[in-house]
Predict the 3D structure of the following.
Amino acid sequence: MTQNFPKSEKLKSRKLIGKLFAEGKSISKFPIRLVYISLSQGEGYQVGVSVSKRNFKKAVSRNRIKRLLREAYRLNKHILEENNEGAYAFMLLYQQREMPTFEQVNRKVKQLFYLFLDKETGKATVKNTTDDV
RNA sequence: CUCGCAGGCCGUCUUAUCGCUCCCAAAAGGGAGAGGAAAGUCCGGACACCAAAGCGCAGCGUAGCGGGUAACACCCGUCGCCCCGAUUUUUCGGGGAAGGACAAGUGCAACAGAAAGUAUGUACAGGUAAGGCUGUAGUGAAAUCAGGUAAACUCUACGCGGUGCAACGCCAUGUAAACCGACAUCUGAGGGUUGCGCGUCCAAAUCGCCUCAGGGCGAGUGUCGGAGGGUAGGCGGUUAGAGCUAUCGGGCAACCGAUAUCCCAGAUAAAUGAUAAGACUCGACAGAAUCCGGCUUACAGGCCUGCAUUUUUU
């Protein structure tokens, strides 16, 4: 399985991001929220991350959390690729005021991905979401 | 060695695995990758565009003298002033600041005092035709002294055009075409223009018909508004520069010159990270966004230099 995060998987189009927030569905596993939308063309995932300036005034803190979110995606994206072949745009949002550890972010992102698979594919996932500690 | 003041410097490190951005390479692979403040956006520039890049007013900035610089409100030197310490009849050392003009006008001034700016008129003495007319006393920093005050208005001198890389250039493209309304067509609708004014600039094309000869109507053209309908991508600008380091020379210094050497982030929903292990003094403030020079603010801990001070030893 691959654990890289090349440019082609980064959500870059301003237009697509606008569409994502306007029309996308969302699932939440506090303090992280996943907004996603199915893409009609292309394949694979395009992923962006975001932290509100309101919750973290300092750029250093926002950078830190965005890096943790990207890292969590990179290490867990095999969960998505093994179970779903569609094309999606993702936006991961961090919605708390406290600085998390990598382990906290990693766990929540994993849970979110399983929730996403349940919802989109309907099939039972390999792992249960609740006992994942 | 103790405590204090001033100035300067550094600002976690090492290894492994998995990643990110840029560059080199056909590939394998290799190389580089946040700060002293990257911050606040407060000054000064470079660079780019804008019409008369014109003038006046307004507005803003600066303020001993000399120097440095691309430039400055910054830096250096120096004079005067103020404060502290030593010395004592004059110096030395350290520190501080927003240091042009109150003899143009206006304003302001605690306490004391009869009276504090159009000045006032107590006591004693002197003097007069008469009178605070004169002196002294008294209050106060100051009592017609050309009073004080310009981090008060103001005045003087000098300087300042505006907007900022979301500038700007190129490619792609729909502020499109068609439609409706109003106004105008050189006696000009309207537009451009920095806060205002003046000035200046841009701006349409005429044709047909009717006529009582003034003009009228229509088409075209132009402008404004309505409605309609998008894009929001790519490349350049964009990192080799008032550049870094070293040596020598000039200068009290800021700084300048010469030679050698090095290439040192370049992202764009936006790279520089994650995990594991280890070390120690246990890691603060904090993330480049066109680029430089300053200022200001934030900052755990550590180091160095100078001055003063206390103590010990020789």
In short: The domain at 10-121 of chain A is CATH 3.30.230.10 (Ribosomal Protein S5; domain 2). Residues 36 and 90 of chain A are 5 Å apart (CA to CA). Residues 126-133 of chain A have pLDDT under 50 and may be disordered. The radius of gyration of chain A is 14 Å.
